Amino acid sequence: MFTGFKQERQYVQRTVSAFEHLVGLRMRNARAHGGVGNLRLPVTALSGGHPVAGEQAGFQDALWGFGMRYALASGVLAARSMLGGGDYDRAWRRAFGATQSASIVNRAIFGRLGNRGYRWLLRMQGRHGDARALLHRIYRPTLFRRLLLPWARWTYRSRRQDASCDHIDCECIWCRMGGHA
Questions:
Q1: How would you class 181 by CB atoms within 10 Å of its CB: exposed for 0-12, middle for 13-18, buried for 19 or more?
Q2: What is the pLDDT of residue 169?
Q3: Coil, strand or helix: which one is 47?
Q4: What is the pLDDT of residue 178?
Q5: Which residues of 3-30 are buried (b: 16+ CB within 10 A; e: fewer)?
Q6: C-alpha distances in Å from residue 169, one per residue of 5, 150, 178, 181
Q7: Alpha-carbon gap, residue 62 to 138, rounded angstroms
Q8: What is the pLDDT along the chain (181 residues), one digit of tens a residue?
Q9: Rounded Cα distance, 72 and 77, in Å
Q10: Whole-angstrom Cα distance, residue 120 to residue 98?
Q11: Which alpha helices (H) appear in 37-142, and where do they start and end?
């Protein structure tokens, strides 16, 4: 048996135990369930030469999963590029490319730290009082985060391959052949 399967079974058992304890219901025949998340930094936000926006383009906060702000901002940038003939990829990179990179680094750091990292964040929040200022600080593009980006991208590299993909102008989020993390 592969170590990954053993770990998965342990996670399922821990999750079921926690659920039963917190909710007070017994689960029978519990099985693992999951899906694919869109965690990537796109090389381009163009598909077939046309701009794509929001999560379709890969614009989602990697740490918290928020995407509405990026959906609206990238939609506006896409419309402006189509109406004014501007470079959409350049516009989104300038507007929030650094923040997207920081979110992937944050995800890798907090993933490594586990609950300790989230407890630290909550303590910091208690000291600061202003959640917006704290989050701004955490997402600030710094030299440290730029240096950690290759490690974070490696951490979240795809381990799956879609056999149906032809790998030509690949945009699938799970494919190893695509040009994104």
A1: buried
A2: 55
A3: strand
A4: 46
A5: eeeeeeeeeeeeeeeeeeeeeeeeeeee
A6: 33, 23, 8, 15
A7: 13
A8: 344 567 667 877 888 888 888 888 887 877 666 655 556 788 888 888 889 999 888 888 888 888 899 999 999 999 999 999 899 999 999 999 999 999 999 999 988 888 898 889 889 888 888 888 888 888 899 999 999 999 988 887 765 555 555 445 555 544 544 444 4
A9: 9
A10: 24
A11: 54-57, 68-84, 88-92, 98-113, 115-128, 131-139
Cα 21 vs. chain centroid, distance in angstroms?
Answer: 30
Closest by CA to 93, choosing from 101, 85, 83, is: 101
CB 156 within 8 A of CB 108: yes
Q: Which two tokens stand for residue 6?
A: 């053993």
Q: What's the number of CA atoms in the CB half-sphere (13 Å) around residue 54?
A: 6
Contact partners, residue 151, CB within 8 Å, separation at least 6 = 108
Residue reference for tokens 């200022």? 133
Which H/E stretch holds residue 14? Answer: helix 3-23
**Backbone torsions φ then ψ of 126, nearest 5 degrees:** -60, -35
- Interatomic CA distance for residues 40 and 181, integer angstroms: 5
Nearest in space to 69 (alpha carbons), one of 122, 113, 77, 167: 77
